[in-house]
Amino acid sequence: xxxxxxxxxxxxxxxxxxxxxxxxxxxxxxxxxxxxxxxxxxxxxxxxxxxxxxxxxxxxxxxxxxxxxx
Length: 70
Prior knowledge:
By secondary structure, this protein is mostly beta strands. The chain has one domain (3-68): SH3 type barrels. It has one helix and seven strands. It is globular, with a radius of gyration of 11 Å. The two termini are 13 Å apart. The mean pLDDT is 94.
């Protein structure tokens, strides 16, 4: 199930080797999985994706960094 959301506060996530990337402020799609959550957002002409733990996602929602939309 894909949920629409808005990132209110950018946050880092574990990406490939190199500098730690950041999920930017703005609209995104959220797809929950067992133990993880995938976030997808538009960047330029394409899309970017981050996978974070369900625990991190829950913490971000609780502190208002991610707002789930109806």
